[in-house]
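Schema walk-through. Below, the input block comes first and the output block second. Nothing else is stored per chain. Lengths vary across the set, and this one has 104 residues.
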Amino acid sequence: MKVLPALSALGDESRLQLVIKLCRNGPQSIARLTEGAGISRQGVTKHLHALHEAGLVRRERSGREQIWRLEPKRLDEVRRYLAQISQQWDDALERLKAAVEKEH
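--- output ---
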């Protein structure tokens, strides 16, 4: 499934925090994303590249800086996938509840 690389990338706390920062503050440079991240600029760059490979972010040049922004379409795919999984679990729990209540 094509959302699995995105879920894997978001499973890392540092990457998730970068995505949250981009969601809250919009496109940003590596320098801004490094502020308060608790990891080096090189570490942030490594995590951004992993997010890029998963299709969650993209980069653009602005002069000498690289500006990173979210890929909302990819995040929406992940959201829909998680909603589908959540619904499947809800349905399974309802079936289990009905089976338990039927026995009593």
